[in-house]
Amino acid sequence: MVELKREELLISQLADLLVNDKHIAVGAASPIPGAASLLVKEEAKLLNNRIRVTILHSNKYNNFTDGARELFDCAAQGRIDTFFLGGVQIDGAANINLVGTGSYEKIQKRFPGSFGSALMYFVVPQIILFREEHSPRTLVDKVDFISAPGFSDENIYRPGGPKFLLTNRALFKFNKQKKRFCLLKIHNNESIENIIKLTGFKFDVDDKITNMSIPDKTRIDILRNKISYMVSEFYPEFADRIWGV
Amino acid sequence: MKQFDELSLLEIVDEVKDGDLIGIPADYSGVPMEFTKELIKKGVKDLKLYCLPLTTIQGDMLIGSGCVSEVEAAAVTLGEFGLAPRFSEAVESGKIIIKDSTCPALHAQLQATEKSVPFMPLRGVIGSDIQKYRKDWQVIENPMKFSGNKNEPILLLPAVQLDILIFHAPCVDKNGNIQIGRRRELATLAHASKNVFVTTEKILDIDFFDDELSAATCLPALYVDGISVVENGAWPCALPGVYGPDNDEIKKYSIAAKTKKGFDDYMKNYLSN
Questions:
Q1: Where are the strands (E) in chain B, listed by range?
Q2: ipTM
Q3: Among residues A113, A188, B87, B114, which is most buried (max CB within 10 A)?
Q4: Is the previous residue joined to A33 through a cis bond, with omega within 30 degrees of 0?
Q5: Do B50 and B152 have their domain in common?
Q6: Whole-prediction pTM value?
Q7: Same domain (yes/no): B131, B196
Q8: Which of A 117-136 lie inside 8 A of B, CB atoms?
């Protein structure tokens, strides 16, 4: 069998977090979350279950007909269970920054912008933070700009928020009470010591920490033979690079 | 009498004035790239881009060409091809003002204008630095007794009316109704704009209102001030349902535009073709 790619492992890891959802939505620049969502949808079909997936940047895998605002209205109505957000920087209190580094008035490096994060982070029950690069420059003690805060005061309407953070080295769970991440799983080639060294914020370590689970042959087959072609419709560069389709 | 004004592309370009607040559709809604090319050639200045909710190569080219003084957007990006280099450079060097927003706020500000009310409330956003830097936004306590939560702070966004909107559409019927399909955000943009011009692949000799399906997916002619047939008018961006993006070309741009010189060379060639 062809060796498992790191991206495939991440897709499988994300898919494990989605199995209880009814409706998963995927936003901009998210090929790995997109592939993971379609994967659990296909697996659910085999078990005679139904999961809806809305991929915003796809014409085919998009359930919306009321224009670009429908994602946000739908999320605010509580009809989306999981959404993915990234960040130029993510800090230990789960604040995310999609705008840039340095002070806002005199920005050093400007990135695209906050997209819909400032609403989605508040209203979608399970937000999974996904950022492949795991380094002290991406996982920081305190973000330079808050596109969306990790938690809010009690009087703010906020049914949603961060649940997990996945990088190419580790999976963390966010503890809402402690306002702190807890390390759950690490990549097979990683050590806890190295994760501590590469993470710019302090975090807890779960008692039952394990390695990321390797997907079984059935899952890999579905991913390579079916999901890869579906992904090529909306992320052609990614599908070509990972699977050559 | 003909039921709409058919214009040349240059006549539409002439409708854009220096300093206009111009509506910019996202890369999935029909980007008027041929129009943009002519607008850059004309040398328009001080445009304020209102992106619904983001812009890609169109905004980056306008910024790099010195046509823009201000951008209100949730993102400026080349998507799979990385950062929008001329945008990033212009913000870092203070050449343009960026009014950072978030997608639902950009929709809501236009929806306020659609309804002709002075503001629109939105949940979320409070506690972000987006809100902190938007002095034109306000937070109040929910004034409703029986709707929403008591003592809940809520964000109010001002209504925004655009001076002008230009987008590219697959086709137009003989009465000037515009097919927009499921891209309903184009209707929101049009409802909230003083002037609306459309470039299109073709004009069909039918009436969209003769059929329930086509009637439901069109923008009625009453919102439109002029139409111009421009074949392949979204290239290299996609025209949903008609043609995909030219990814090779966008990639070429993304590499060239990393430097000012690379951008200038690319644009010299692009504008002369």
A1: 21-25, 47-52, 54-55, 68-73, 75-76, 97-100, 119-122, 138-141, 153-158, 162-172, 178-179, 193-203, 218-219, 226-229
A2: 0.96
A3: B87
A4: no
A5: no
A6: 0.96
A7: no
A8: 117-123
pLDDT of A3-13, one tens digit each? 999 999 999 99
Say which of A109, A123, A149 has its CB closest to residue B92.
Answer: A109
Q: Which residue segment(s) compose the domain that B247 sits in?
A: 9-102+160-262
* Minimal CA separation from A87 to chain B, in Å: 13
pLDDT in tens, B39-76: 999 999 999 999 999 999 999 999 999 999 999 999 99
Q: Is B168 on the interface with A (CB under 8 A)?
A: no
Q: Could you report the per-residue pLDDT of B188-219, keeping only the tens digit for each?
A: 999 999 999 999 999 999 999 999 999 999 99
Domain boundaries, chain A: 6-237
Tell me, yes or no, whether B136 lies in a domain: yes
Q: Contact B73/A236, CB-based, under 8 Å?
A: no
Residues B93 and B179 in one domain: yes
* Cis omega (within 30 of 0) for bond into B53: yes
Q: How far is the C-alpha of B246 from the C-alpha of B251, rounded, in Å?
A: 9
In A, residues 36-95, which contact B (CB 8 Å cutoff)? Answer: 57, 59, 64-73, 76
Q: What is the pLDDT of residue A28?
A: 78
Q: For A6-237, which CATH superfamily applies?
A: Glutaconate Coenzyme A-transferase (3.40.1080.10)
